[in-house]
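Why do we bother with holo predictions? Because pocket geometry can differ from the apo form. Keep that in mind while you read this record for zinc ion.
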Amino acid sequence: MNELAEVAVDAKHPAIKGEYYYIVPEQLKEKIQVGSRVRVPFNNKTIDGVVLRFLKKEDANCDFCLKEISAVDERFVLPPFMLELAGCLAKYYAANIIDFLKLMLPPDVGLPKESLYSIAEAWKVESFRSEIQKEVFRVIRDAGSITSEDISRILDLPHSKVKGALSSLMKKGFVKREFRVKIENPSFREDSPKSAFPRLTFEQAKALNEIKRNMEEEKKPVLLFGITGSGKTEVYIKAIENVLAKGKKALVLVPEISLTPQMTERFHERFPGKVAVLHSRLSDGERFREWYRVYKGDADITIGARSAVFAPIRDLGLIIVDEEHESSYKQMEFPFYDARQVVRFRAEIQGAAVVYGSATPSVESFYKAIKGEFALLKLTRRVTGKPLPPVEIVDMREELKSGNKHIFSSKLCSEMDSALSRGEQVILFLNRRGHSTFVLCRDCGYVLKCPHCDISLTYHISDKKGKCHYCGFQVDAPDICPKCDSRNIRYFGAGTEKVEQEIKSRYPGVKVIRVDADSTSRKGALEKMLWEFKLGKAQVMVGTQSIAKGLDFPRVSLVGIVAADVTLNLPDFRAGERTFQLISQVAGRAGRGDIPGKVIVQTYCPESLAIKAACQYKFKDFYKEELFNRKKFEYPPFYYLMNLTFTGTDLAKVEAAAFKVKKILEEKVPQTKILGPIPAPRFKVKDNFRYNILLKSSKQESLIKAGDILKNLKGFDRKVYLSWDMDPQDL
Ligand code: ADP
Ligand code: ZN
Ligand code: ZN
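The structure, written out:
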């Protein structure tokens, strides 16, 4: 008996968000199911919720008066495996189940106008007072179900008259209205295969066979470690074909759809009419339709960025995570999920295979592979047979000695001169996080670091101190280099704008496109810039790391990394990994066209292994040393992290709350280091003060427990907002 329903409600305030019982009203009994989206009364408002289960009145043991569910969205029901996934994630991230269910729902575009009319189940033969009603009734009876537009066409009556008749018929209960989603598929293409599909190379075929075998036997996630241009996508395509042949479906996750249009194009071409694409640039209506096609099982392959991991795919056989090392898989705001983690839960629940692909796997995934938790497959050669371009390191300390104080070395300048004079294009990279500065000796490359955390100290100009934003350690920034006694020690940080100016003054008349967070904040601005550069409307592009992944410009012959040190000295334990990835990705993508490519990396620290290993394509050396350091300084994959943020307008309260929480955690959470509280790197944002606490533990269960404690904190200052980020990225 579905008398009551437990509903996860989407209340605004986290303290009252949760699951509540509601009465299932008689007239909605047939329509409400487990997984239905419903509207329910809550604190004098009507809000959204999702039905989790049914129960009998006597099982509810609550004596107060329950309210009724007000309405139900009849278009869809979230399938049971999605409810299970939401439950798992809510536990792991210490959030409410509704926080994840919300991510699984399609955009709320209201009910579609398109409706079907059919005869009500319990109808009586009646005499109709109006002739039109009689005719309309007859047409519906004959058709079974039909739209109002069609009725008006058949009877040759004005639509308004038909509508009027329909509403009287409905009032009397003779006919009922159903909603149907009109499917116009924005990503549907008729194109037939253009080119002949390539035959797999020996390496590709071997990898494919291993994937197939693995899917039958060990059923382990696969890490496909293949250099750029080695044909990973082709392997994905073949693995997907194999899964589709078994009547199952596939999900393909990519870091950012707008930067990888070639990838989606290729899938459309290879699987015409079978692909659904979910991305942020779709309008709500378009997104709803794509979502609905997936829900109905009309799309065999779903492609999308991070949030597509929540697409309602039944019979899921395979999940591909392309460029698995990208931090954009992590949602940096509440509920702070990592799509790669979601993939693991989802694959488990639905029995799907997983392939993670990358030319520069994350240290975590690589470690899982060497431990045997993932099956490791390698592609070591480019399909074209073209070698990877040479990468040259320029030692900026030497540059300074020879009197050049500019941001560009003489080597980079002469290469730019000749590339531009040949009419070729140049790309210069700078790190995305230009705002964090560090203290560097320009003579010897010495960088001020935290002795406890092994990250660079962030220079604070106000009190001339270097501060660790993990543990709070601080020292006065030295005037003299502790290593070489040079006075040439100062804080460092070059922005994209400075690089742009420098080029403009060196090469008047040369057009420069600057791609960074400021210049691309408008929707579509990034695509436009990349397109203009491709068309040759500018000769030089200056950009942050974000443009590295989509790089596919055949006329680019020179790529420069202006200051590898900026990435290398990010105040982040992944700084080395990011540097290694940036250089490898950039190098792998240069020289794709007919013009041979060249890469120049400028640095004050050429002895850094992250830089050396990337430039010489010695991947193993890098992972070996990086894993050693991660273990030594207690970072993932050996330790788990959780970052707490306290936010509020009253600084004293924020601080007090942070110390109070630290105390609670110290008492209740075992085997966990609690670093901080310390002011956050962005201490004041929009009049809000922010404090951080970093938790570190070798036992992830401890952190899950900490999350649970934080979620259930009572008597917490309501003016201070607390969030917790499990497995933080870009920390
Ligand atoms: P990756 O994803 O590893 O960077 P891609 O799958 O994009 O590599 O392949 C690079 C290029 O090589 C693409 O243009 C692709 O069409 C082509 N390609 C892939 N496999 C083959 C093959 N076996 N024979 C010929 N060309 C191939
Ligand atoms: Zn020095
Ligand atoms: Zn520290």
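Residues 450, 452-453, 468, 470-471, 473 surround zinc ion (ligand 3) (CB under 6 Å).
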